[in-house]
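Hello K.,

You asked for the raw outputs rather than the summary table, so here they are, unedited. I folded two proteins back to back in the same session to keep the settings identical. This is the first:
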Amino acid sequence: MTRRAALLGAIFLALAQVPGPVAADHGGRDIGSLFSCDRPGISPPRCTSVADGRRHLIVFDSTLTDGLASSMRDSMIEDYGRTELELIEQESVTDDTDVIVFSEDYGENGAAGWVYCPPDAPQGVNRWGDRWCRQQELYLNLNPRYAGFFADDGSRDHVACHELGHTVGLRHWGNPPRSPEPAAATCMNADTPDGPSDLHQIDIDHIDGYRYTRLPLHRPRMLDRIDLRPNGGRLVSAWPGQSVLAMEVEHFGSLAEMADGADAVVLGRIVAITPGRSFGGASGHPLRYATVSVEVDDLLAGGLPAAHAQSVILEVPLFGGAPEIASGSASARGVFFLRSKATSAADAGPADVQDRESAYYRLVVLNAAILDDHDTAAVADGDHAFLEVLDGLRFEDVVLTVERAATIDPG
């Protein structure tokens, strides 16, 4: 995906990941990381981490028995296939691998299975304060002391479902640790060698309601660390191979510059995304647009004509083989830095072009939108670090930051 397609991807990603309902009080435990991975005196070392995204890549080590490999595959498809996660078997370990599964006789160490995040594994803390970990190690102990956990297909299915659950942050029902009643048929019951082999619907709701994401530990998080001062002149240059005028040709030095360079900065809500206009069809490589309808909740900077005071039509180009989209309603809140297409066309065409374009807006650059992702700001990748530093902050704080930036003289 090109940089110019990144914004549209961010919008669709946000819309696709609206969580399902999460049950209130019940016997299940919320998604989360559990225990330090280097607790003294704990052998074997074990800890529960969360995944770093909804794609969960799993490698079966050569030590894994055929029966357990079959149970793992069944659970990945039949149990976790009912969730919004995508569990994928890999042939070998890569930097993106999430879990490596082993099975051997590890001795009478008190555990039939456990999950561990090694200290040298790629890991960090996400925006919810949970440890995420790649290359987690999932061990299944074939010592005869724990034979009841692996005695038949049903038992192996239970332990596979259970330990996979720990790799995405599911925690025990029952004891240990004890959870409130009612007890329920779930593979996350603890200490049940011949236990249920399926996830409970509550487990599925927890998984689907959790925003799996990773956030490196070095990422700035505090509002007072955001630099709002102008830090460079505005650069104007042509995009290599560009065939559309006034598209991604600007670079802003600060949030204040971007607000000043917009005709309007609005806090609004996307209410519909539909197929839009198409240009250059005769060339055989038409440029298609998505039309994004945005209801305006507040004007943070600039101005809008009376006809657009309550809603604007935002056009987003579908570059580089982006898929066709179907018309439909949507719901995504955000801050949008808008440029009137009539303004963009003023020096590039006659009056009739300006009139035709006056109904449409574009983003000043194609990642100039800050989406509200579960009360947290989400920003697409791009060339403006001052936007990316907002990613992961509390959305309402970001709105205030944009308003504050709009009062700064960028000159």
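The second followed immediately with the same parameters:
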Amino acid sequence: MLYYFVRPLTFLFFHLFFRKIYLSGLRELKSGERTILAVNHPTAFLDPAIVASFTNPTQNFLLRGDVFSSPFYRWLLRQIHTIPIFRFRDGYSSLKNNQSTFDYCYELLHQRKYLLVLAEGQTRFEKRLRPIQKGTARMAFGAYEKYDIEDIRIIPVGVNYTDAYRTRSIVMVETGEPIWLSSYMDAYRENPRKAHKQVTDEIARQLEQRVVHVEADEDELFADQCLEMQRNDLIGWTNWPATEESNELLRAEVGLARQINQLPEEDKAPWREETARYFDQLKSLRIDDLTLARPTVDDFFNLLLVLIGALPALLGFVLNYPPVGLSRRVADSTVKRKEFYTSIRFGIMLFGGLFYYLLLLPILLLIGHGAWYLLLAMPLLGICYVRWRERYQRWSYCRRYKQLPAVVRSGLQETRSALVQRLKTLANASA
């Protein structure tokens, strides 16, 4: 039952944790099909949680077995439909437990349930698709061997973040075409290893089309900066609606990253240096690229909204600070790998916030005189603070930009126009 309690909470909180969520195909998934979702894995826990929150069928997740380290954790993780899978690094004795995991997964598929597999087999914080492991294909064919079922489909799902290390970033999720096991049965009967490879290669092929992939380490920052400029031209600063059915932005980002990968180094190196100088200049001036792309947010209307929203935003900040501040402090002091940073913050803000509200409830009831209404207002005031902070930042950046000397503004715009023109040329080449 815990799964059905947590899922709507995560669904709602994702709309606050992220600035924008773009979905394509995820909500069209229906129950009643034997389905394995093959998902890439750039963060620790957010990727499967996002997929589960925005799909109607109940998801069952394969999770690294060392997390099931105590009876309480085993019970808790089972309640949210996670299934332990052990790796060589967990020891030989643990590996023996995998057979019961496989049997359970086969039974789920036999019952026409959904199984979510993190197909890369490891989490890595980068805009890059890691090699796809054969475990997904083996799971599907294993269910066939045990129950003689061929109507199993594998659906690749690409999950992308504009910045997985920060809150209020943008998420883009797209599902691929179903890979039906029945289409590979002849190959499997002839040579099981060959069929495993064919299915794995097809998963990789489809994920490559749905994951922003930057091949070279030295290009990661350059690609991020180019993607930011392209994004600012395409969508600017938009928060509404919080969730949108569209793959337009993802298609643009995947295409641009692919073109950057294909650029010869002699062409890429001077462009990379020029882009770095441009962003360094923006940083020194305490503005950002979006300010140059959309420099019109310092008008009277936005100033009025900033002034009107200041008091409720301050109340929202003060009243909701305990779980938010705790999440930052714990993540900053304990997280050793970047892949876990936002996941830990998300979990503490969500469940810590829920505990905080429940703790305040009896206190406010004892105070009486309608004080408990404050508890109902706190989440709304928290949302008000988040929205106000972003509007204030945009207003202040644009105000700062307008106060620069005209010659500086002109030089920045000329530099940006030249860089964006190169991006458009690349984009047209990938179209």
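Residues 344 and 414 are 42 Å apart (CA to CA).

Happy to rerun anything if the numbers look odd on your end.

Regards,
P.
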